[in-house]
Each structure stands twice: as structure tokens, then as C-alpha cells.
Amino acid sequence: MVLFRKSYPGFCLLIFFVSLSSCSVEKNTNLSRFYHNLTSHYNIYFNGKESYMKGMERISASNTDDYTVIMPLFEFSNPDAIRSASSDMDRAMQKASKVISLHSMTAKPEKKANKSLSEREKELYDKNDYNNWVDDSYLLLGKAQFMKHDFENARVTFLHNIRESDSRLIRIESQVWLARSVAALNNYIEALRLLTEIENQEMPDLLRAELLLSRADIYIKEERYDEATFPLDQALELMKGNSPKNRYTYILARLYEETGNSVKAGSTYREVLKLSPPYELEFNARINQAGVFDVESGDINEIEKELKRLLKDIKNREYQDQIYYALGNLAMREGNVDKAIEYIQLSAAVSSSNMNQKGRSYLMLAEHFFGEKEYLKSQVYYDSTVSFLESSYPGYKEINETALDLKSLAENLNTIEHQDSLRYVASLPEAQQQALINGIIRKLEEQERLAEADMDDRYNMGQFYENQRRFRDNVDQSGKWYFYNQAALTFGRTEFRNRWGQRKLEDNWRRRNKARINGINLTEEGELMQADSVPVLLDKKSPEYYLKDLPLNDSLLAVSDERIAASLFNAGRIFDEKFNNREKSNELYNELISRYPDNILVAQALFNLYNLNKNSEPALAERNKELLLTSFPDSEFAKIVANPDYYTVLQQEKVAEEKLYDRAYNSWLNENHSSAVELCEEGMAKYPDGEWISKFHLLRAYSMARLVDERTLKEELQLIVKLFPATEEAARASELIAHINSEIPELKVEEEKEIAEEIYSTELSGPHYFVVIIKNNKLDVNRLTFDVINFNIDTYTDKNYSTRGELVNDEYIMISVRTLEDEFVAAEYYNNFDYSGILKNTGSAEIMIFTITEANMETFLKDKDPDRYNFFFENHYLNPEE
């Protein structure tokens, strides 16, 4: 008995290992099935699912909803929230994969010989996998992949589970998730098909709710909001518990609101409040409930009191922008426009972190003023709208397009007003001009004085509050952050005031003058510097500031005329094409015609007026047509009006031109080069302004390649580059020129010599520069310049030569020495300059030296091609007799 007790643990261990050996996945027995199911469920799968659920909790906690738009139905649609659960999903995937790889049992159980199988045994024998947790693990793996936004692999995983799972409900759930994965890949048609395929099957209420939510989610993504309400409403009826329902109920209310069903929206928002939602959701439900309130049948005072009560509640401080917006919306619907505008402006002003809400507030103002045809006011608010709204905001593209159109309109209208004002002032006698300008300056000084007084008041008020804050216990005087350290804060403010004075909180506060001038830079002293380094003081309190743009001579008046004419035309076109405002378009086009009847834009303005009025006011359209035909008979617009088939004729010409080119191209393909040249020349003669003209030229050059020498071919290619710059044909011609240059470099040399002779002057007397070119942009410019300066000090001690070094076009270093008295002194300097001994550490860099006149130096600084000038230098300085 004692011997048995001592050997019992070892005996149990032996039994365990014998049992374990019989539990291989390759051997399908009751014991092996029991072992692998038990191990998979309570060890690996359980831990994987726990990680998945923990990840879903992190996603919910990390998700931040934007209540200014219709929220995504599922919190896991937010990529930022998904990132917080990445490690949890990785662990869930690891555990699910472990169950699948180590515990999947696909081997069939052994059949007993000469014995027919019962129905239960047949069902067992027909299973795809004998571990009941493998298909659950596939489902878990697919969900975790989905949460990682690995939608393609999730799709493959769910598809496998649908084909292989022995559980009907797991196959249904996998297909719901497969539809979600396909929808995430933007294939909404296939996703809806997958859901329709299983919607008539029996399933638990919660699984059917998930199916209905998936369908609603797809409709929302497609902005089919009316269709989304039905499946979402059905899903809510099947769900239990307030926590998941409150978010979906709120979204349902938003869908009703978006589709104009205010009654259903209001009642659904009330349902949200009954579900005891989180405060932010409750608050937005109350705010939106006010937005759908029926101002005609309900008590508007009650809803306004409720909003103002919310406004006073301290915990709603961060939501004041939304409350003001709701009040403004309510006032606008009531018809109290002034009050509405005041509330919406307050909404935009108090909004700080919620940029989308600020954008919505500006958008409401922008749309109001646009509807009132106050386009310049609307433009300002549209400009602010696109600055604050996120690009993902619904309709952002259309909002941005309207903003750009309004900006263009405002620029043109402002140009007209500005130029007319300048012309008016320019027409006044000088004494009246001075009086007008002095009045503007006095007004500006008064505004500055009032602003400074206002700043004093604000500063004193700030000092009061600052002193109050010093006694608050919640301010940490020893805080490390500057703005929590009261001593540092006070010292910094004092130092700022001593150095800069009282400055308004605004952009570019350091500048004395905020004028923005193209091509002018600000110096440290506050002066404005032009490109030629001549200081230009632009003080708004100086009369010269207002006189500088006045059109005081004929040429400036002509420029002003062109600006006004172009702006009248552009503004008229925008009103017609963008805003469908026929009245304003007519007005501006007619002003252009009456003020500038000979302007080149008048023909098109008359043509536009004809089209603008031919349906609504045919008599007016006919007058414009006659004026166009008599005043501009040769214009294309007159031809279009006179001949309704003009476009047809043009199209026929284009077809004929293209066919002719095809014939020429086929001749070239068949190596009939002479015929190709002839056909190209025919096309060039017939269609000099046609769409294919550059192609005719290039094909002619290709065809000439076999018929002429390289020099002639190169000249033809250079003509293409000159005639059709910035075209594909010019690019191809340039490539061929480069190829010819590489194959026959002497042609390039001859061309460069000819160009040099054309651009450089042969008058070589007078002051000269000496120039060193080092073709290595990696060398030290300052070191090399210092080497030349040392040479000058050692060799020309009695001369005051100026030396300058610079990197040109990031290609080569240029060091110039000036001023050498004449060409003879320059020649002597050239002969004395042994660059191999003077310039240090240049390695194998190519070095070039030459002398050049001051006039030719100006040309060289524009041309920036030292090789080209060197040809000229060798021909006229080194080998003049040749």
C-alpha cells in the first residue's frame, strides 16, 4: 500500500501523457475531440475574445463624434479610435490563429466495419471540422482584421468561414461581417446583395439587428438618408439596453432631420432623452430638438427659454457656440433676421475648439447674405467657412467652389470700385486732392487714438483680473509652464511693453505699416526695401501713400481702362454662369459696352448678352445681335450668331485636318518621306491655326530626317521649340536636338558661337571684369573667393579691386574681380592669373577664366552660360585675327 502511494503521482502522470498522445488532431476520437474543444474554448479562444472586447471598449472610449454632421453609425468607423485598440486586436488575431493552426480537427472518425451509420453518426461524419471553436476563431480573426482596417484579409477570412463553418448562425454572422468588409472597400452594391441574400433566414434578434444596422450604415455612406431610416428603426426595436440604443436613436433623429421630417425628428430626439444618454449626446439632442421645433404651432418662447437656460449652465461653456447657433437658427425660422445674425455671429465668435461648428456658423451667414444677393458680404463669410470646415464636411466641394467664385467676383467688383475711386481723385484739382487725402489721414489718426485708448482700458482691466488671479489657490506659482508661472508672466508682459509699447493682438504686430507690396521686403528698422535696395517709406499717414497709384497721365489712364473693362466683363460672366443672376449680368455687360465701346471684350459681351436674353427677352437679344454684326462683323462671335451651322463647319474642318494628318502619318510609317513632307506642308498651309499645327511641324521634321542634313534638321527642330513652347511637340523636338548635339558636337559649338556673336557686343574698350568659373557646386565659395582676394593683395597692392563670389543656379561658382580700367589692364591681369597655383583644393574641377566688358557682363548675368561666352572670348580676345 505504501509502495502504491509513492508511485501514484507517477502513475497519474503516465496516464496523462498516454491520454495526451491519443489526443492528436490527426486522430479523431471522443477523447481527442473533448480535449481540443476544451483547450480551445477555455484557454485560447477565451483569452482572444477578451482581448477583442477590451479593444472594442478602447475604441468606444477613444472615439470622438462630430455632432455637426451625421455621425458614422459605428464607432469603429473612426480611424483615430481604431489605433487605440491595435495591440488588443493583434492579440485577438494571435489567439484565434493559434486555435486554427494547433487545434483544427479535419480528420474523419474511424467507421466501424460492417455497420451502417445512424443519422447522428452521419451528421458527425459530414462535419468539416470537429473542433467546435475553429469557426468561432475564424469569425474572431476576421473581426479583429476588420478592426485593424485590413479589410481585404478580413473579407477572405469571412468568406472561408461561410464556406467551411458547420454552424448556420456563424455562417450568417460571417456574411454580415463580409458585407461590412465589402462596404469598407466601397463596393456597396455587392455588400447590399450579401445582406439581402440572408435577410429572410431565421436568426436571433440581436443578429438580425446587426444585419439591419449594416444595411442602414451602407445607405448612410451613400447619403441615401431616407432609405436608411427604415432598417435603423427596425434594428432599434430588436435591441435591448439603453447603452447601445441611445447613439443609434440619435442618428435616426438626425436622419429624419436631414430628410425634412421635422415631426419624426423631434419625437425621436425626445426618445433619446428618455434613454439616459451620456451628457454630450443629451445636450446635442436638446439642441437639435430646438432646430426642428415647429415655430408656427409650438410655443417658441419656451424653447428659447430652454436654450438660454442651457447657455447659463456652467457645464455647457464649451457648447456655447452650438447653443448660439440653435438660437440663431430658431430666430431665422421665426423671421427675426437681425436677431438671428447676431446669434450666429456670437456662435462663430465663441467657438474655439469646434472648428466645424465655427465653419457652420459662418456658412449660415454666408448663405443668408448670398440669398439676399449681398455678394461681397457673402464672400467674406464663405472665405471664413472654407477656412474652418474640414474637407470631409458634407458638400464641402460645392461650398469651396462657391467661395472661389465669390472671391473672383469680389476681386473684380473691388477692382472696378478702386479704379473708379482713383480716377475720381486724379480728376480733382491738386488742392482738393490734398484736402481729401488729409481728411483720410486725420480719420486714420483718430481711429489709432481710439484704439490706443481702448487698449489702455483693456490693459487696466487685465491688470485687475491678473491681481485677482494671484490670490486664487488653483494657480500653481511654481508651475514649470510659462503661463502658469505668475512671476515670469508679469515680467514678460512688462518687458514686452517696454520694448514694443502697447500693441494690438493681430497678425504682423511688429510692423509699423501693414501694407503688403509685391517685390518689397521689410528691413529691421521697419522700412520697406525694393529689389534695388532703395528704401521706400509707405506710411499710411503720408500723402505720398495715396498719390502713388493715381492714374495721372494717359498711359496710366489706359491701364486703368483695361482693368475696369476686364473686371466688368469677368463680373458679368460670373453673375451669369455661376450665380444665374441675369439682371446683374446684363447690367455689367451693358456698362462695359457703354463705357468702352471699342474694347476687344465688347464683341464677346454682346454675344453673351444675345445668349443671355434670347429666351426671356428676344427683342433685346436681337438688338445685341445686330450691334455685334455691325460693329464686329469679322469676329468669331459674329460668325457664330450669323451662321447657326458655324460650329458644324468648324467641326468638319477639324475632322478634315485630322484626316490629313493621318494620311501624312501613314506615309511616314510606310517610309514615304517625301509624300509625308508634302502632306504636312499642305496641312500647315490649310490649317495654320488648327489644333494639329504643331503635330504637322513635328511630323514634317521627322520626315525630313531622311531627306536633309543634320544642320537643316536641327534648324527645323529649333523652329518648333520657338513656335510651340511648353507643348509636347516642343519637348520631343528638344530631345532630338539634344541627341544631335551629343552625336555631332561640332554643330552645337557652331550654334553656340553664332548665339554668342548675336548677344554680346564687339565694342571691347572701357572698364572690364575678370571672371573665374569653377564647375563644381560642392566647393567652398568663401574659401575660393578669399584665395582670389589674397592674390590681389599680394600682386596689386596699389589697386582697390572688388572681389565677389557666388554660386550660380546651383551649377557653378563664379568669382568676379572689378573694376579693371580697360581691355589692356584686363589682359595683363588675365596673363598673371595662374589659377592652378592661386585656387586651393579645387581637385579635378573644370576651371575657366576670362575678361569681359561691363556691358557684356550685364548680358552674361542674364544668359548665365559661361561656355557660350567663352567662345566669344576666345574669338575676340585670344584669337582676334582668326
Major sheet: order of its strands? 5-6-4-7
- Major sheet size, sense and barrel closure: 4 strands, antiparallel
- What fraction of residues sit in β-strands? under 5%
What's the overall geometry? extended
State mean pLDDT (0 to 100 scale).
83
**Main structural class:** mainly alpha
Q: What is the subunit arrangement here?
A: single chain
Q: N- to C-terminal separation?
A: 128 Å
Radius of gyration: 42 Å
Count of alpha/pi helices = 39
The helix content, as a percent range, equals 55-70%
Low-confidence stretches: 1-22, 461-491, 507-537
Number of strands: 7
Provide an overview of this structure.
The chain is mostly helical and 882 residues long. Helix content is 68%, strand content 4%. The chain is built from 39 helices and seven strands. Helix 7 packs antiparallel against helix 8 (168-184), helix 29 runs antiparallel to helix 30 and helix 29 (646-669) runs parallel beside helix 31 (693-704). It is extended, with a radius of gyration of 42 Å. The model is unreliable at 1-22, 461-491 and 507-537 (pLDDT under 50).
